[in-house]
Structure formats: structure tokens, C-alpha cells
Amino acid sequence: MRTIVLLRYLSDPALRDSIAVVTNRMEAFHGFARWLRFGGDVLADNDPDHQDKLIKLNELMANCVIYNTTLDITDVVNDLVAKHTQVERVDRATISPYVTTPIRCFGDWKLDLTPTADRRARPAHLPVHDDRPGAPR
């Protein structure tokens, strides 16, 4: 069976092209999911069940983000069409839901380290303990 599939693959350019398209789509998805994965390689675990859960959670999260991005792209295209702007098929074909470039993966973290008036640094008033053995606490 493998030999027949390999011979078909080698002799049929259309089959090679279709396999290349699907492979490129899957590689793009996996690249996006890898970019989206929280913690990266820090979340290493040797438990196969835990690994399986992490992979499925990551793929679910990637699919949700892709779905949301697709809805946003659809809204933009529909707005352009409603304004009588022609949106070419070639232009739509170049749009990808795997948007990573202008996005900070986990948002913008803005820290205001300026203490407020009621949270200014004050000395701690800790009780003094006698560290001698048998001393009352």
C-alpha cells in the first residue's frame, strides 16, 4: 500500500500540490499554536496524560483565537463592501487568521510602581521576641 501511494505521489503533480497545500496549512497552524502557547517549554512534564491535556488546551485556544480573528476579518471586509469598496478575491486570499505580528501575545502589561498616598513605605512595627530558650512569646 505504501509503495502504491509513493508511486502515485511521484507520478502525479496535482497530488503533490494538494499534499503540499495541506502540509503548509498544518505547519502554519502549528506555528501559530506554538507562538500562542503560554509558558513555552517551561511547562514540561513527563506525564503523558498531562502532556495530552496541554496539547489539546493549546489547540483549543488557538482555534478560538483563529475563529475570533476570522470574525474580525469578515466584519472588516463586510464594512468595506458596505461602503462600496471593491475587495478583490486575490486580496482576500492573502489574509490569514494566524495574525501574530502586531499583537503582543499576552497583552500589554503596564505597571505603575508609584506608591499612592495611603500605601507609602512605612516602617514595620513588629513585636520583639526574646530568642532565648524558654523565654515567653
SSE topology:
Layout: H1 2-11, H2 13-36, H3 48-82, H4 89-93
The end-to-end distance, rounded to whole angstroms, is 81 Å
Mean pLDDT: 80
State the share of residues found in helices, binned by percent: 40-55%
**CA-based shape:** flat
Number of domains: 1
Helices and strands, in order, run as: HHHH
| Largest β sheet strand count, sense and barrel closure | none
Strand-residue proportion:
under 5%
Low-confidence stretches: none
Summarize the structure.
54% of the residues lie in helices and 0% in strands. It has 137 residues and is mainly alpha-helical.
Descriptive overview:
With 137 residues, this protein is an all-alpha fold. The chain has one domain. The protein contains four helices and no strands. α2 crosses α3. The mean pLDDT is 80.
List descriptors:
single chain, 137 residues, mainly alpha, 4 helices, flat
